[in-house]
Amino acid sequence: MVMNPIVAKALEEGRYKLLEHESFELLRQYNIPVPDFALVQDVNEALKVVKDIGYPVALKVVSPDIIHKSDVGGVILNINNDELRSACERIRINIREKAPYARVSGFLLQRMVPEGLETIVGATKDPIFGHVIAFGLGGVMVEVLQDVSFRIVPVTEEDARAMIREIKGYRLFNGYRNMPVRDEEAVVYIITRFSELLSENPNIVEADLNPVIVLERGKGAYAADARFIIGTA
Fold it and tell me: How many Cβ atoms sit within 10 Å of the Cβ of residue 164?
């Protein structure tokens, strides 16, 4: 099996983690929906690129040395057209003060996804069973509620649908109280495509799509953030 060039490049550079834009590019290769995005080097490039992406946007520092971007002030959300320049400068200042050791590769400029139900699609590589996919409510809910279902790769559409319906939080997909019905089939698609991605990339040892934001029925779902840990084992 030929190694994916994005994964191969990271391993050649001695990195165990894909950068944010690399993670999104890998997801795009498998047709997993992600918000419009671009890697930019400075505010001038950001101001040019944002014309194609459109406001509002999120801005995230890209660095191989920063694991939790929010902890060092490396993420700013819901930026509008008169705030992008100051947002870039604010992140630079935050990084200089809180992570002066970090090598900065640029900024990820990302279109904001509309509000929706936050879920997580994750995976680890078990030494016996291989890749195991997990699904549950996203954000901090996955840690607080521990309401998660699991399947071994490969995951079929039937498997994915069962995973979604096994969690206690599934009632949120059905329009709980005055909430809209969510696009369950869009999540089924993401899980099965994610399964294919893992099957074809054995060097991925851990991955999280968190959050996967699920919109109203018929409007899709998007991986708003992604993390891939890679290795040679």
Answer: 21
Share of the chain above pLDDT 90, in %: 86
Q: How far apart are CA 71 and CA 13, in angstroms?
A: 26
pTM summary value: 0.92
Q: Which CATH number fits domain 117-230: 3.30.470.20, 3.30.470.10, 3.40.190.170, 3.90.1680.10?
A: 3.30.470.20
Q: Which segments of the chain belong to CATH 3.30.1490.20? A: 36-111
pLDDT, tens digit, for every residue of 42-71? 999 999 999 999 999 999 999 999 988 989
Over residues 152-202, the pLDDT tens digits come to: 999 999 999 999 999 999 999 998 888 899 999 999 999 999 999 999 999
Q: Within its chain, how far is the Cα of 206 from the centroid?
A: 13
Q: Give the residue range(s) of CATH 3.30.470.20 domains in the chain.
A: 117-230
How many residues can be counted in the chain? 233
Superfamily of domain 36-111: ATP-grasp fold, A domain (3.30.1490.20)
> Is the pLDDT reported for residue 39 higher than 90?
yes
